[in-house]
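Contributing new records

If you add data, match the layout below exactly. Sequence lines come first and carry their own label; structure lines follow with theirs. Keep one chain per record. Anything else will be rejected by the validation script.
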Amino acid sequence: MWYWIGRDVQWLMHFVVLGGAAGVMLLCSTLTAAQGLPRYELSLGADYRLAEFDWSIAGELNGTAPNVLSELTWTDLEIPQVSAAARVNFGRHVVLQANGAYGEIISGKNQDSDYAGENRSSEFSRSNNAGRGRIDEASLALGYRFRVYDSLAGRYAHITPLAGYSLHHQNLKIKDGVQTIPATGPLADLSSTYDAQWQGPWLGLNMRLEAGERTALLVDMAYHWADYSAEADWNLRDDLAHPVSYRHAATGEGVIAALGVVHALSRHWEVVARIESQHWTTDPGVDTVYLIDAGSGAVSAVTTRLNAVHWKSRLLGITAIYRFM
């Protein structure tokens, strides 16, 4: 029961971020009505993301016995996604924006390896599996825009420092497995899950550089401070509790950079082609495993060191923007 309550709370937090954006926009519109109506922008995008994810644990909490006991990697994750954003400009300077995205992992590989020796030596267990799942993101930010005129180019540059809060969620599934060390063959009914979330504040910079009458260049950069948490269900392990077999907790950071080209189709419509790179990593944290006694059914918790978690992705997308004038 607590597992499902936790998942519901997680989804609720995503909706709170986006719903809160709508509420703040409405409030700001009311407060600034006397100074002129705010200007709204809505956007919808179709993206394609390639990603990889990995984590490892040590045998002991101090990082020894061995230094890498178990390691999970997800590679070649192919993720088509949809993205949406709302932006409100209050006067010439104040900007409020909310972003969200949802994607399905349609293809990918997973490897689960266990080691008896230091530095990934004496590998005694390995399974090679299919990686599936989904991802979703939500962010809310407030910024102050500066408009700078380049007299040499005869164009304006719009520079907006931003401060915000974001949630980034990866629900990773392991299925269609084969035990390759020892080579015992297919793993029947494999359906394990690893549910990860990064959340926290961030600072960023958005730059829009006018390149022509209808063309502009967009540059986005953001640095995130993240609290990392994850829950896993290893469905074939009878010695582990279910639906939560273990939990991970750590602090980390994320860097997001994006580059886009904007083309204005009309007074209201713009189209943006963009590329994006994300790189998230954690400091050492804690891995808490929930063992279950086969006789009594009692659950005991054992902790060891979570060495690190990494999430990397590259994105190519196209977005349509509608401006309410």
